[in-house]
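Data availability (excerpt). All sequences and predicted token strings are deposited with the supplementary files. A representative entry, Large ribosomal subunit protein mL59 domain-containing protein, is shown inline so that the format can be inspected without opening the archive.
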Amino acid sequence: MSAIKRVSEQALNHLKRLYTPSDFKPRFIYKNMWGRKRYMHPKVSLRKLADMRKNAEYLGINTESIGLPPKKEKNPPRTKPPKGAKHERNAPARKAKIQKALDEMQKTIENWRKDKLQEKEKGKPSLPF
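Structure token line:
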């Protein structure tokens, strides 16, 4: 058994009136003699707008026909990967670096041996005695 919603007379009067888009937007107007701008609240608050929209949908009234602005699309919630520990975040790059070093190990060893021989040759005297 569904509950029947009771819409008040005041809410019905709000729905009978035609609105303009400026009724739902805040404005800056000149208020004082020095020409300073002052903030003016919208004629219809967001809370009242939401109530009017719900009542209109419940009663089967088209919201655009009475001048209500279209419903804003909600942004999806922001998804962010979990932070994780630093060693977990750096693990893929570290593994790639280690694998690269292992692949180049033979070349590294050869270069090291050549350098050692050159150092040994450099340390020997040029004279045979």
